[in-house]
Specification:
The protein is of the alpha+beta class and 407 residues long. The protein has three domains: 4-189, no CATH class; 190-265; 277-405, Heat Shock Protein 90 (2-Layer Sandwich), CATH 3.30.565.10. 62% of the residues lie in helices and 9% in strands. It has helices spanning 4-8, 12-25, 27-33, 40-49, 58-75, 81-97, 108-123, 143-231, 238-265, 280-289, 307-327, 361-368, 375-384; strands at 294-299, 333-339, 343-351, 388-394, 397-405. It starts with a helix and ends with a strand. Mean pLDDT is 72; it is low at 1-5, 130-137, 268-273 and 358-372.
Length: 407
C-alpha cells in the first residue's frame, strides 16, 4: 500500500527526507553504544539506515532488520535494543504501508524470536545468551526456565502486537483519507456535470422561448403577406402580386424550418404566453403573497423592446426573486427597473438573513417553483443581448444589477 500522504503531497520527497532525518537523530544512541559494544555498533548502524525504506519497501525493511537482529544476538553478548526497535518499525511499516495480503507477515519475526529463545533456554544454542536482557535469561534448564520463557515471550508478543496494531490503525486512517479524497473528486466532477447540465438546460429553455417568439413573428409576416397579396388582385398589380407571393412562400418555408429545427433539438414546449418587462410588477405582487416583503419601483419612460429582450428582463427578475426566496427568506428587499437613455437597468437589493431564521412554508413553496439555474441562467440571458450583470455584497445587503443596452 502506498502512503496516501506521499501520494497526495506536492513534494513527496520531503516525507522521505523526514524519515532520513529521524534516522540520523537516532545515531547518537549508537555512538554511545560504541563504548560498551564495539561489535554491535556497526550492525545497529546498518539497522538504523534501513528505516528510510519503511514507506517505499516495508517488506525489505522487515526481512533485513530481522536478519540483522538475529545476527546481532548470535555474535554479540550484550542486549541490542536498536536492532529490536528497527524490527518493530518494520512490523509497523508492513502493517501500515505494505500490500494488504502481506500485512500479517509482521508476525514472522516474532515466531523466529520465540524459536531462538526456546532453543537457547532449553538447548543452550548461544553461549553468550546469559547476558541477554541484562542477564534475565538463565541458560540452566530447571523449573524456572518455563516461567522465564513465558514472561519473555509475553513481552515480545505484546511489543509485536502493539507495533502491528498501530500500523493497522494508520492503514485504516490512510484508507479513510483516500476515500474522502475520492469522494471529494467525485463531488467535484458531479458539480461540473451539474453546471454543464444547468447551462444546457437553460439554453434549451431559451430555445423554447425563442421558438414562440420567432414562430409568432413569422406567422405575423405570413398573415400580412397573405393580406397584401389578396389586396393587390387588381389590374396592373401583377408584379406586386408576385412579390407578396414570394414573401408568403418564404415566410411559410421559414416557419416550417424553425419548427422542424427546434423540434429536433428541444423537448416538448410549454404552452404558456410570453412574459416581458411590463409583467414584472405583477410578478412582484404574486411574490408578496408568498410572504416576501418586496417593493417594486419603475423609473423613466418605458420603451418598446424586442420580445426576446423583454422576456430576458422578466426572467432575470424572476430568477432574482427566486434567489431571495431560497437564500434570504423573509428578508426585506427592493427591486428597481430604470429606463435610461441608453440602457434599461434592473436592480435587486435584499438584506442578508439573520442567523437561525427559517423560511415560511409559502416562501419555500415559491422558491421550489423557480427555475433553479441561478446566476448561470442570468449570465446566459445577459450574454445573448450583450448585457452585463454585477453581483455584489456590501455589509448586510446583497445586490444584483443587470443592464441591457437598447437595440
Amino acid at each position: 500500500m502506498q502512503d496516501s500522504f506521499i501520494a497526495s503531497h506536492e513534494r513527496p520527497l520531503r516525507v522521505l527526507l523526514m524519515d532520513a532525518l529521524g534516522t540520523l537523530a537516532a545515531f547518537p544512541v549508537v555512538f554511545v553504544m560504541l563504548f560498551t559494544s564495539p561489535m554491535g555498533t556497526p550492525l545497529s548502524s546498518i539497522a538504523l539506515m534501513l528505516i528510510v525504506l519503511r514507506r517505499v519497501a516495508p517488506l525489505t525493511l522487515l526481512w533485513l532488520s530481522t536478519v540483522l537482529a538475529g545476527t546481532t544476538y548470535a555474535l554479540v553478548d550484550e542486549f541490542q535494543m536498536v536492532a529490536d526497535m528497527v524490527v518493530l518499525v518494520g512490523v509497523h511499516s508492513v502493517a501500515a504501508f505494505g500490500p494488504a495480503r502481506m500485512r500479517f507477515y509482521g508476525f514472522v519475526p516474532l515466531l523466529l524470536a520465540l524459536v531462538l529463545m526456546a532453543g537457547q533456554l532449553f538447548f543452550g544454542w548461544f553461549p553468550n545468551a546469559g547476558s541477554w536482557f541484562g542477564g534475565i535469561i538463565d541458560p540452566t534448564v530447571g523449573p524456572e526456565v518455563f516461567i522465564q520463557f513465558v514472561m519473555i515471550s509475553g513481552v515480545c508478543a505484546v511489543a509485536f502486537l502493539a507495533a502491528w496494531a498501530l500500523g493497522m490503525l494508520r492503514r485504516s486512517q490512510f484508507t479513510d483519507v483516500m476515500r474522502q479524497r475520492e469522494r471529494a473528486d467525485l463531488l467535484e466532477r458531479d458539480a461540473h456535470r451539474l453546471a454543464e447540465l444547468a447551462v444546457t438546460d437553460e439554453r434549451a429553455r431559451i430555445a423554447r422561448e425563442m421558438h414562440d417568439i420567432i414562430a409568432h413573428s413569422l406567422a405575423s409576416i405570413l398573415t400580412l403577406a397573405e393580406g397584401g397579396r389578396m389586396g393587390t388582385k387588381q389590374p396592373g398589380s401583377e408584379f406586386s402580386n408576385r412579390l407578396f407571393a414570394k414573401i408568403s412562400e418564404a415566410s411559410r418555408s421559414a416557419l416550417g424550418d424553425v419548427k422542424l429545427l427546434l423540434r429536433q433539438v428541444d423537448s416538448p414546449q410549454d404552452e404558456r404566453p410570453t412574459q416581458g418587462a411590463g409583467d414584472i410588477g405583477e410578478l412582484v405582487e404574486t411574490t408578496r403573497l408568498a410572504g416576501l416583503p418586496i417593493e417594486f419601483s419603475e423609473l423613466g419612460e418605458r420603451r418598446e423592446l424586442p420580445s426576446g429582450l423583454s422576456l430576458a428582463i422578466y426572467r432575470v427578475a424572476q430568477e432574482s426573486i427566486t434567489n431571495i426566496l431560497k437564500h434570504a427568506p423573509g428578508a426585506r428587499c427592493e427591486m428597481r427597473l430604470v429606463w435610461d437613455e441608453e440602457k434599461v437597468t434592473l436592480t435587486t437589493l435584499n438584506e442578508l438573513p439573520e442567523p437561525g431564521r427559517e423560511a415560511s412554508p409559502e416562501a419555500e413553496a415559491a422558491a421550489s417553483s423557480g427555475s433553479g439555474r441561478g446566476l448561470v441562467g442570468m449570465r446566459e440571458r445577459m450574454a445573448i443581448f450583450d448585457g452585463s450583470i454585477d453581483v455584489t455584497r456590501t455589509g448586510h445587503v446583497f445586490q444584483i444589477q443587470a443592464a441591457w443596452p437598447y437595440p
